[in-house]
Amino acid sequence: MMMRAVVVPLLAALGLALIPAGAKEAKAKPYEHYVFGKLDTPTPGPVSGGLLLMGGGDRNIDSMKWFFGKAGNGHIVVISASYGKEIGQEFYKDIGGIQSTEIFVFHSRAQAANKKILERLRKADGIFIAGGDQARYVRYWRGTPVADILNAHVAAGKPLAGTSAGLAVQGEKLYGAMDDGSITSPEALAEPFGPANTIEGDFLHFALLKGIVTDTHFKERDRLGRLFAFVAKAQAGRPADQPAMIGLGVDESAALAVEPDGRARIYATEPDGYAWVVDGSGLRDLSQRGPLDAPRVKVTGVGPGSVLHLPSGQVDAPVFVRNYAARAGEIVEVPRWSLAIHGGAGVIERGSLPPEKEKAYRAGLDEALRAGAAVLDKGGASLDAVAAAVRVLEDNLLFNAGRGAVFTAEGKNELDAAIMDGKTQKAGAVAGVTRTRHPVDLARAVMDKSPHVMLAGPGADRFSVERGLEQVDPAWFRTEERWQGLLRWREKQLGAVDPTHLFGTVGAVAIDADGNLAAATSTGGMTGKRWGRVGDSPIIGAGTYAKNGQCAVSATGSGEYFIRESAARQVCDRVGWKGESLADAAQATIMAVGAIGGDGGLIAMGPDGRPAFAINDLGMYRGRMSAGGKAQTAIFADEKWAD
């Protein structure tokens, strides 16, 4: 082994030429140069491309051997602005298997034009960017021949590695730490578009990291929140026709080895050493004022058994797929999918339901939850899930929808339903149908297989037959309990005779693993309704509404008042336009309905997967379930959820 330290005087003219206009660079000490091994020996093996992205911390020996192998076990040049000869000792002697390690430690921008340094970098079989202060790397190397050589080195199919700051500078955009400090996750989340979040660009241009922002020491320093902020600011103003940027964080105990074709695998020194892939689609077009507000951000874990494809960010065999919400300066994990249902509202006080009937209602709600959850848990769409849940309720005699529907004044069952897709904002609705077993399916057919949004009466019945939906004799919907209710109504001319099921509409709202919202509602209307009365359930924006990024809503109650308040749409507008939380928006809306004389309730689902339930002085049959959780049901107004 040969080691020598070389101190090279600066060429003042070159230095002055490289200092940006208006800037003054204090006289810096000469660069440091260390050599371990022999620089003139042949490279033993073939050199091939690759990137090694190391999360910092203790050196990952297996990953370094991969890197050395990519360099043909030849000559490694290390560049740094902080660390010196100890890296050469480690690489050449402790790990071994290479011909030489040569280290250059920069102390000024001017040194990025030094001919000897540039010559050695051009000849390197592999280049390693050490850790340290990434702001120095940006200041010293951006727009210099060093940056040009790094880009050319990778483009020529030679390997490059970096750890800590040496990884953090490799993405298309990077956090520069230009304010002489490292921003924390709470600081970044509190003001993601503020001056402290110094996002830089036009530095390194590696094709495999195009559209990517990197970060290191990831799990150990709780950096997920700040990577959200990095990605949000980095892609602000990004053209809509370009894909969202990706965040890539690497734990200290992990190193991501990227092959020339973009396939990347983890070398880990601990079982939970991962890379974290942040999908930037949930961090686009955000408000640039105040704390980060992102309702749903997908994060995928890359472990030793996973394969990450760069630059797309696709992960085969991920160790986890999680969703997070950022709000008010904090991030929380949210469920992969979530579902909420209702079975109508009424004056449902404890003791008003016999125990066996309460048990039956809860069982019916539970069955509907499980039907919708089965769709979502297999990766199905929220639109399919809400339809599945509502179909179960339409077949249950206890609920005022489908088979358990109430009678009109003329003694008929006339059914209404609606469904809406939050992703496309397509919707379908039917009113006054009489022969379709599942009105929610007919509403879906209107949405998917017609140019219209709503069909009513005989025309809707004909369309149902033409589309091949299941038809039943009108007697299918008749139940003795509902018939007796009509007879009592005829005697007393009451708008409804069962106070425990005053408004029996059923509905469901859901969000799926792709973050798409959907809502569906189905009802038999009001006992004794006349003249083709239609309530809020099939009216998009009144009893049913869904819009991605805001909310999905299904309502139940005195429909005329929900129509007048545009209740379902109002909830989403309060979230989207006024910035209210979903729970506050739902409660404010139901109180607005009550203020003009309406009673009832509504359920809403937000993009963070947390449902809201709002009731104005009434009970409501309701339930919820999310990925990894248990089905929960509630009936009484004062009933609390298990969490």
Q: What portion of the residues fall into strands of 2 or more residues?
A: 25-35%
Ends apart, CA distance between termini: 64 Å
The general outline is elongated
Q: Can you tell me the CATH architecture of the largest domain?
A: 4-Layer Sandwich
Structural class, from secondary structure content? alpha+beta
* Helix-residue proportion: 25-40%
CATH topology type of the largest domain? Glutamine Phosphoribosylpyrophosphate, subunit 1, domain 1
Strands, count: 31
Query: Can you list the strand order of the major beta sheet?
Result: 1-2-5-4-6-7-3-12-13-16-17
CATH 4th-level superfamily of the largest domain: (Glycosyl)asparaginase
Radius of gyration: 32 Å
Q: Give the helix tally.
A: 17
Number of domains: 3
Which stretches of 5+ consecutive residues score pLDDT under 50? Answer: 1-25
Average pLDDT, all residues: 91
CATH class of the largest domain: Alpha Beta
Structure, explained:
This protein is an alpha+beta fold and 643 residues long. It has 17 helices and 31 strands. An 11-stranded mixed β-sheet has the order 1-2-5-4-6-7-3-12-13-16-17, with helices on both faces. It has an 8-stranded mixed β-sheet with strand order 23-22-21-25-24-20-30-31. Strands 10-11-14-15-18-19 form a 6-stranded mixed β-sheet. The radius of gyration is 32 Å and the shape is elongated. The relative contact order is 0.08.
